[in-house]
Amino acid sequence: MDVIYGLIPGMLILGIVAVAVLFWAARSGQFDDLDGDGQRILMDEDDQRPSQEADQEQEQEQEK
């Protein structure tokens, strides 16, 4: 029974810390974009459009 006198304050402190971490995460923007990471992993970053210089080089090669 004496153990409960130590566990109750310990659990209260742990609960307060958990709530404080939750509020910190919400204020720092951790939950702003929940779907972004899931979508980013599906999208290819390799699909970059060629630069204008590459387009001009191709046009010059085609003219020859």
TrEMBL record:
Coiled coil: none annotated. Residues 54-64 have a biased composition (Acidic residues). Residues 35-64 are annotated as: Disordered. InterPro entries: Cyt_oxidase_maturation_cbb3 (IPR004714). It comes from the Bacteria. Keywords: Membrane, Transmembrane, Transmembrane helix. This is Cytochrome oxidase maturation protein, cbb3-type. It comes from Thiocystis violascens (strain ATCC 17096 / DSM 198 / 6111) (Chromatium violascens).
